[in-house]
Amino acid sequence: MIKKTLDERAFHLLKEKMDEGLLPQWVLTDPDIYDLEIEKIYGHSWQFLGHETEIKEPGSYVTRWMVNDPVLLVRTREGEIKAFLNSCTHRGTQLCTADRGNKKTFTCPYHGWSYNLNGELVGIVAGNKVYGEEMDKSEWGLRPIPQVEMYQGMIFGNLDINAEPLEDYLGEMKWYLDILLGRSGGMEVRGLPQRWVAKANWKATAENFAADPYHVQTTHRSTVEMGISPEDPLYAGYGHQVVMKNAHGINVITSKTGKARVPFQGMPESMWPLFEKHLTPEQLDVQSKVTVFVGGVYPNLSFVSPIHGTEGHLHNYLNFRMWRPLGPDKVEVWCWFLIDKAAPEEYKEAAYRGYLGSFGPSGTLEQDDTETWARIVEVSKGLMMRDKELNYNSVSNYLMGYSHVKPDENFPGPGTAYPTTYIDALSRRMHEQWLDMISKGLFKEEVKQ
Amino acid sequence: MNLDIERKVTPELHLEITTLLNREAYFLDNRKYKEWLELLTDDLVYRMPLRETVEGVGVDDISKDMAFFEETKVSLTTRANRLYTKSAWVENPATRQRHFITNVTVEGTEKEDEFKVRSYFLFMRSRASTTDIEQMFGERNDIIRKVNGVWKISSRTIFPDQSVITTMNMSMFL
User: Fold this and answer.
1) CA distance linking residue B78 with residue B71, whole number of Å
2) If residue B21 lies in a helix (H) or strand (E), which one and from where to where?
């Protein structure tokens, strides 16, 4: 089906428009494109599973999803982190439905097969009496997620056994993750992720978060009306947008003066020596100037490290969110709150309340984002928008900073750093990555038929 | 529960409290947030923890460490004030919403003018011209207190029944 509707000509036209800083709108919620994305992007990318502090003790587990693949993420008795397909090997039943817990064995409610924390099949009801001695239990252990690796406490899985190692995949992004997650010696997740279903396409939410500070001045204008954010429409545009290998990126938003609005994002002064200890001088320079970090790890993990509160009570925290695609126009958002382990307890609590007031489904900033995400997908099914021949010129505009904004060679961090965050450089890079991945091998197969 | 306390919950009292909850629902459904805030005590505790899926029978499935709301009267006032701006796009154009409040039970406490009130909620919302109806349901545990002769809500804990929320945001108060 895909091959019938997605012909080579449409892809050539798509590439041609993308090279001009435009994105044909038909690709956003096209069902065939969506199927390709799941297979070719999510089947081969490192996807976020959880943070090591979510499964601290031996036997701790959480259940997660890699799009439609159910995942059981466990800490073994030996303290190792392992991930398995959350499905009984006997008849495929979902093995564990709890969100989190602590166990020694997982028993399937269908026929009672049970598995230990290493995924080994350790119990079969009636065992040899029904299967005979010839059935080898060691052949029927839980199927492991092919690759599981961790960086700065962030655990990722990959369904492609041949995918490049996580650290290579993250590449230059590691330098920034070292700041976000390693600045004080480690972060911890508080509780469970908040989860909700939004009307949106995963590409649009990932781009909205990782690559688009330009939306802040209008989408979040209510904060300006209330006197919380500055009147200057450029306020979220000061700083750098950094574009990296594999379409990862970060916006280092400073302020009009090029300095932070408050030192070290309002983190307590007692913690500043930790930043000096854990960061390189270049990283410390970036951390000392930033007001907000916001960015993403391709394809569907985004993060923000903002400042919230009023003068004298400013708080910083780290929020990671995973956009789990549930369809061309549906996303399940998973939203984690992280804070420095070393932060004082009262600061952690205040930062948590600041987070609830701003992000997540109840956060006042994110509420308005959900409205714009929905308004995009709700109008994307029409003949004009879906026209692959582009007779109606249905293309989205990614021309901000196209060709005329040059990278800043003096920026201390790795990657290509543009001297503004009101620029579509990262969005364009994400689109390129997307097209490279979904079109890989597509037409060679078609020619063969 | 000793008899003295139980006896305090008269049909008249039950009616007064359900009238308060119905009035509250009316204010929320009609975007009268300033009037709604008047129904809350200044020392209000307003919470909405996550519901989680937990293995086992008779286990507590209310999250102790993550919530959607952890509010005070001050933070709720900020949230309400935002909905009076022109650019809180989530409610401009306004959504149409109804709070259906049922199964109200009232229980006395050690304090003469303070009652524990449990109610169920069904929240339904229609947005723009989309035909999808959003909904959320669950239970609320309140403390209702008489302040200067007027019943007010001094504590509310909202327990959603869903672990994954299906309203696309939570711009509503429950």
Assistant:
1) 10
2) helix B11-29
pTM, rounded to two decimals: 0.95
- The beta strands (E) that lie in A281-405 are given as 292-297, 301-305, 307-310, 313-316, 318-327, 330-340, 395-397
Q: Give the whole-angstrom CA distance, residue A227 versus residue A224.
A: 5
- Tens of pLDDT along A296-316? 999 999 999 999 876 567 899
Chain A closest-CA separation from residue B84 CA (Å): 9
Please indicate if any CB of chain A lies within 8 Å of the CB of B51.
Answer: no
User: Where do the structural domains in chain A lie, given as residue ranges?
Assistant: 47-158, 172-437
Distances (CA, A) of A153 to A47, A147, B153: 14, 16, 43
CA–CA min distance A308, chain B (Å): 13
Give the distance from residue B96's alpha carbon to the nearest chain A alpha carbon, in angstroms. 15
Q: Are B48 and B67 in contact (CB under 8 A)?
A: yes
Task: Specify which residues B67 forms β-bridges with.
Answer: B49
Confirm or reject CATH 3.10.450.50 for domain B3-160, answering yes or no: yes
Q: Which residues pair with A187 in a beta bridge?
A: A340
Q: Considering the domain A172-437, what is its CATH architecture?
A: Alpha-Beta Complex (3.90)
Measured between beta carbons, the chain B residues lying within 8 angstroms of A199 are: 132, 168
Residues 6 or more apart whose CB falls under 8 angstroms from that of B53 comprise A97, A98, A99, B61, B163
State yes or no: ipTM above 0.90: yes
Q: What is the pLDDT of residues B13-62, one digit of tens each?
A: 999 999 999 999 999 999 999 999 999 999 999 999 999 999 999 999 99
Mode of pairing for the β-strands spanning A395-397 and A330-340:
unpaired
Identify all chain A residues contacting B48, using CB atoms and an 8 Å cutoff: 362
Read off the pLDDT of residues A386-422 as tens digits, 9 standing for 90 and up: 999 999 999 999 999 999 999 999 999 999 999 999 9
Report the alpha-carbon distance of residue A359 to residue A296 in Å, rounded.
16
The crossing angle, in degrees rounded to 10, of helices A345-358 and B73-82 is: 30
Name the residue among A431, A413, A422, A344 with its Cα closest to residue A177.
A413
Length of chain B: 174
8 Å CB contact between B69 and B173: no
The residue with tokens 């750093």 is: A417
Specify the CATH superfamily of domain A47-158: Rieske [2Fe-2S] iron-sulphur domain (2.102.10.10)
Non-local CB neighbours of A157 within 8 Å, separated by 6+ positions: A46, A47, A49, A66, A71, A83, A145, A146, A147, A148
pLDDT in tens, B60-74: 999 999 999 999 999
